[in-house]
Request: fold
Amino acid sequence: MKREPISIWQPAEIDGEPAFVRPDPLPLGDHYAAVKVLRPKRSELPLRVGFFGESVAAGYLYAPHLTPARVLEAQLRAAGGDDNFEVVDLARTNETLASLAETVRTSLQINPDVLVLWIGNNWNLLETPEVSPYAPSAEARRRYAQALREEGTDGPLRLATETLREKAEATLDFVALIARAVQIPVVVVIPEVNLADWEDRQPPVWLPGNGNGRWHDLYAEAAGRLERRDYDGALAATVSMLKLDAEKCAATWRLRVRCFEGLGDLDRAARAARSEIDAAAYPVQAFLGAPRATTAVREILRGAARRHGFSAIDLRKVFAEATGSPLPGRRLFLDYCHLTSEGIQLAMATVAAEVLNLSGMPFSIPALPAPEISPEAEATARLGAAVHTAHRLLTVGPKRPILEHWCQAALDASPGIEEAMLDLIEARCAPCPAVLTAAQQRNLASPYRLLLQHGWRWDHLDAELIEAIEAVLERRGRPAGERIARLLLEHHAVSDEGRKGEEGTDLTEPPCLWEPLERFYPEVMRFADLSERATFRSPWPESSFCLVCAAERDVEIEPTLRLPAAVPGESRQGRVRIAVNGEEVGGMDATERWSRSSLLVPRSSLKPGLNRLSLRWPAPETDGGAALQAAVERLELGIAGDLHPVFGEVFSLVARRR
Amino acid sequence: MLETCQVTSPLALPAITHVDGSARPQTVSPAAAPRYAALLEAFRRRTGCPMLVNTSFNVRGEPIVGSPVDALFSLGSSGIDALALEDFLIDREAVPANWAELFPAWRERARSGFARGRSAVSEDLYTFV
Reply:
């Protein structure tokens, strides 16, 4: 029989024996396990576990130093004997259902005795990309529009859920068929996700009447009350928000999580967090979200386990029992779904117990070995968590505390990572890709080697992360502020007016977006098949930019902006307020037509280094029903349409020293 | 290119000579381009050849270099001996040995495929969805 590749492992012969060999790992990491060669089994023992799954299963942020597959193997050997078990790691970051099915099928060439599948977090846009108002296909947009016209936002959501269920069930049926054919058991790991420390701040879609304006007013009220620890007051505001957004906006649920946490009711906080995850669905969301298994995904996995007799391990139960809390957070999770070393150990211990049960071999469960990981690798994963969180998290409250937590945790694991932090900042501040910098060369030669998965390839300054690193280093008595300010000023200080060849710095360009995620997600992801926009658009009432200066002179701001009309022929007007570091310094009147204005920011409002310049937009007064109807009409014509208000649009935001 | 003419030269000039024996020369005056003219003169003194080939700056499969960063990527991932960037001359010897290994992985950004039938969304090492 002709041998086929198994994932990226290609058929080969080694010493006359069949084998499968993968290409060498890329120097900055890749999606797959670092194991070079896979071979068919030659003897009954060791019993071979085929391990499949997504980035959680691949040990994202820890790989290649620590992977769940290696932890599982160590645990199985500790409990069942060194010669009796081995785990073949076929997990991969960004795994999809189609490629999972193919990898499971082709893995039969190396004779697994048990299949372990740890899947479900990726079952979102990755599986149903066509159910989106931004799908490039005109036909897909028309289908979307029809569902939206007939059922409101429930329509596209239903379409996506049905499509996903069909694909996922077909894949799991296929796995069952394969497993039955070779008579091997299947273990399905049902994911749990970070409920306490990951958030999904999303704006609501267009709401009827002036619902969006009222929703954002209530949001501001709830957020303010939360800050003042008035949890009951904040909760009351969220009740009104739920009525407005029909319980379908993730941000409302996150506010409620924070309220319940404040009130000490963790069970209700956990329920609200699950509602948040379910509400954050790509067919109706604006900002880029994070992969987290929804209730529907968990049901599909449980249903397949029941139908096919798979063993099901529910990590929700495992983690709740281990921590005594229904609201898992940073102790077990590095980010939205990727686990800490403790989380990996807990999860794999449960899988190990199930595999041991299924093996029919005698075993005893001793104190299972803690994952073997060096302090440097642990610190690197934690710094990676800080970077990843900086890039992917949108919070309803301040974001800095969680960033500082991970920076601090990295330093606690291994203080030597300080230099890696400063190298990271140096690379961020450089006016070129990080890979061209001496800072990255130093990091590559260090024991804290950051890979692409730790966020090297990023176009933006990472303002919040820079500030978090500076704060934790200063607290440890390691003054870094001066060095960081120098790096920032060297390449990013706003330029002078009138200097030859310099007309100021446009803050709408990378690297100056303070929170690059606060855009419609196709604009963040740079889809190759969607043309890039020439303007910055804000689906949120405030947009922030990095203004770097020495603060020894005033800075002139010159925005060119408009308040875009949501329906053809609509007029809009209002005042755009401008704030620096949270303090308002002025504003400009704007309409639906482009206009330019200028404003002098006195040096007394600025600080040396990073300043946060914010545009605070007036809420659209458009009838949300009419705006949604306009979006439907565009989609019916095959033109992309926004389901969310665009508060403001910026052509350029030039800053120059005066 | 000023004009097309037949090559008659005591030097062997295969790099600029077409199969029909023609070439498209471009002349440089010290007044119009003093640095380039000085380069030509220096090259003549060293080699006896007062000519350099002016070719597009791109390596196979890549678009034409349009920025200093593009030029550095080309230097790192091709056999270029030296790169002149305004007042800087960067010799291959000065290039980190691992650039050739790092660049392909860095630059290869398989994108979306939103609805192209291939793996959807990003193959980037970030889990984006």
User: Anything to note?
Assistant: The longest helix of chain B spans residues 34-47. The interface with chain A takes residues 68-69, 72, 96, 98-99, 101-103, 105-106, 109, 111-116, 119-129 of chain B (CB under 8 Å). Helices of chain B lie at 34-47, 68-77, 99-107. Confidence is low (pLDDT under 50) at residues 110-123 of chain B.
